Amino acid sequence: MSLIDVACDLTYQVRTTTVFLFQIEAARTPRQCVISENLSLNPNVTVETFEIGTDGNQLQRVSVEPCTLEVSYRATVELKPGKEDSNDIGESPISQTPPAVLTYLNPSRYSESDLLSRFAFEEFGQLYPGFSRVQAICNWVFDHLDYTPGSTNANTTASDVLLQRTGVCRDYAHLAISLCRGMGIPARYVAGYAVNLQPPDFHGFMEAFLDGKWYLFDPTRLTSVHGLVRIGTGRDAADVSTATITGNTVLTQQIVSATESANNADPVDEDTGASAVSTA
Amino acid sequence: MSLIDVACDLTYQVRTTTVFLFQIEAARTPRQCVISENLSLNPNVTVETFEIGTDGNQLQRVSVEPCTLEVSYRATVELKPGKEDSNDIGESPISQTPPAVLTYLNPSRYSESDLLSRFAFEEFGQLYPGFSRVQAICNWVFDHLDYTPGSTNANTTASDVLLQRTGVCRDYAHLAISLCRGMGIPARYVAGYAVNLQPPDFHGFMEAFLDGKWYLFDPTRLTSVHGLVRIGTGRDAADVSTATITGNTVLTQQIVSATESANNADPVDEDTGASAVSTA
Amino acid sequence: MSLIDVACDLTYQVRTTTVFLFQIEAARTPRQCVISENLSLNPNVTVETFEIGTDGNQLQRVSVEPCTLEVSYRATVELKPGKEDSNDIGESPISQTPPAVLTYLNPSRYSESDLLSRFAFEEFGQLYPGFSRVQAICNWVFDHLDYTPGSTNANTTASDVLLQRTGVCRDYAHLAISLCRGMGIPARYVAGYAVNLQPPDFHGFMEAFLDGKWYLFDPTRLTSVHGLVRIGTGRDAADVSTATITGNTVLTQQIVSATESANNADPVDEDTGASAVSTA
Amino acid sequence: MSLIDVACDLTYQVRTTTVFLFQIEAARTPRQCVISENLSLNPNVTVETFEIGTDGNQLQRVSVEPCTLEVSYRATVELKPGKEDSNDIGESPISQTPPAVLTYLNPSRYSESDLLSRFAFEEFGQLYPGFSRVQAICNWVFDHLDYTPGSTNANTTASDVLLQRTGVCRDYAHLAISLCRGMGIPARYVAGYAVNLQPPDFHGFMEAFLDGKWYLFDPTRLTSVHGLVRIGTGRDAADVSTATITGNTVLTQQIVSATESANNADPVDEDTGASAVSTA
């Protein structure tokens, strides 16, 4: 168990009546408990909060007249990940994959696993199935991409990234997800906060479904998976945008942080890959 | 209310142990009642049936050793669509869209609405919001595409179709879906059986979310929306494949039909567009 | 006849031994006479000058050791375009197109005319053939794109632009070229200097082959075709890069200008479209 | 020196007045001498023959009224390739590349070398420059693609092929060309006849520019480069279509062959890669 303090402050110049859909609150899951949290908006507009999907994603809807909008979120979150010996974790044959997980085998907007399946089998088909194979996929992504802010945009897909060999965290995750799905391993995108991420920002990483559980991976190696706080889970980044904005509005400031809580009894481990982190 | 008989017969040459995920059974929804149905497989292997998602999609999982596999499905389905005056149907502002519907605003594998949003606003932004605008989108798709079997494949997306101006039913649906989403109208893909479809085959069409309900559209104009029997609902065709096959297997025969039942009291209307069909 | 003064000043930080291929000098063509010119480099390295292709393109090759490289070009160019009544100009049937022109019917890297042919015929197939049809294509491009610096990059193609509906001068030209080729009208890319372009920069525009001659068009409407000074001609922008750089080098300053010469006897006309400008 | 007999017979159903641009005749080059040839058309329409470009490409233009058109070509061609020890062949630095060759460094429609440059450097950047590096690129293409007729179409590019890992001869050539260009090695497409190609067909292969000469490579390994008869040279397949057709016409038969001539004094060698074949 670890206690993590997360925070984000967003400022928008709202020029026309605008509807925001925010996904910035920590998700509620069996492995992630929100000990305390506070969301404040200035001006103090009405906030509707929904849980969407079945993975604990929280969504806030706000309608705002022209103004300067400040959004501030603070939370303390307790992480209770399963930690297992990564050597013991195999793959789940499709004949035993739970129905709710099957959707994470389908190609999606940014993870066109149908296009990359042959590539995946060629590169990783001979490897021993299980956690180590997903690790090998993430290692391949890490080794073959250059982390280059500005080299991709909101339209960039896993195929683009595989060709151009550059990207940022969301691109790393999309490519690893595509390669997993392409081999028949369910995989999904996770947006979140990450302890000690430099420079501080929201983070994108991934999960693969192995032996009946979801396991966390960060192909960028920028963080330890032991310190990841989930905001939301989706097929890819299309499902977990920080803010979906309908209206003429500009983001003018964004400050994000995630740190171990002062009274954290169980410091966040480094990610050695020997200890696998399961989340559901 | 209409009674429709649907049937499909599929034959596969199974060369290695193969897992099939079938989506061929009629969905269970408040507006579609399965009066009777029978699924038989020869050889008589064990069939697991799941309901996946929240829209009544039925999925069968079967594991088969090398053989000739014959799958036969028969059902009688009662359609109880809402029928409303299409002139009365407006759009749902995003501030009032139900949370479960928001996912159908996101871009997906074959409906990259993010890429087509500017195009959509340019073409349809000046039209009066509501049912008639979605109809205008479907009309545009019908007018600008040529229905050309073989002109697209399993990788073809709405962007491809918008450029090449040819496609089949799934492509028509993907393009119409993308244009709707691009304008902020939730839209989703429906796979199904269609009365009087020529040549007989599975069909792909779409739904748009308007004034709090889902309404059916078939941009190919090959069928009447009053005679559409839903198999499954998804973001796009990736979610409702007839058969997802893991193994070395070839489809050697496929026969599909949908006809009005002999004791159908309420014949299927022609689709004039004046009477809108709501499904949920 | 018009006299135009053109100038460009480029500064590079050269960090490793670097080979530059420059295309910044005014082309030599029957319709464009270089009255005087001067190219100076500081440090004063050896410059090889080649004429490449058959359209008067000048190319400079320079090999430079690490330094700050300043490139300065000044020229006075006399334009002697043909000016004709645009109403009299038809299209050249492929049965009469000169062999050297046929290559400009082929698709190229940024002008994938094969993908856009059906679109082109659908939009422009009913129009009367000739100059006015190419003008209609350029008008369509102008009307349907937003000129948005930063919205495209060096990989952006005509297909991308047709979907996303934004671009800069090279994108406008690529799309107009593709649509012309898609209809069987030879079209090519021209890089050059443009009188009164705001903000001052190199410019990209296009030519279409009609009735046995090449005619200039600028679908951005940012300039008058009467004041365009050709640097080079190619299938698309891939052929006429300002600088192709092999080495670790960064452009730190670029100043470009084109103005009517003080002793210009024949002021540059506005581009009304009534008077067509032929260049070869 | 080898003597090769080549032949092709094409039959078209011409439904409307149609203009054909054929590229089926053997090219005239210093290394390829056409000893005898005959082109006959039935009905006996007028044929215009042009040499296009500077590499000996022959182009025939024919205008045909509705009919059944039979095109028959026979030629005996003498190949006089240079044969050199492949170990002695280095790369040409861009500072010494002849100006006419520079165009073959540019990206083209089907060989988007700009997109694949980073990939190329990552895979092949550490290899010793020269013939062996181009051979390594061709080996990589051979090893990572499956030769699968029908898996690609006229729109398929090198990027597509690199992702999907299947293709036919033109796709193999496009990918190898792109990877060469991406590393700064000029490369171009060659269409031709190939001795002993099974099944008999036109063939597509490639050349790379090394140490001041063009060298032949066939990444499909379906043929010996010693038995390749050039029809035409281009940036990619867009430049050397067998037939460019303007009109409503269908190809109903195509028979192609290339065999060693009965009085061939110098049998075609196997392609061991030890002996490099230069063509210009």
UniProtKB/TrEMBL annotation, chains A, B, C, D:
What are the boundaries of the region Disordered?
A: 260-280
Q: Which Pfam families match?
A: Bact_transglu_N_2, Transglut_core
Q: Which residues form a coiled coil?
A: none
Its domain of life reads: Bacteria
Q: Where is the Transglutaminase-like domain?
A: 161-221
Annotated membrane-spanning segments are none
Residues spanning the signal sequence: none
Q: What is the protein's name according to its record?
A: Transglutaminase-like domain-containing protein
Q: Which organism is it from?
A: Fuerstiella marisgermanici
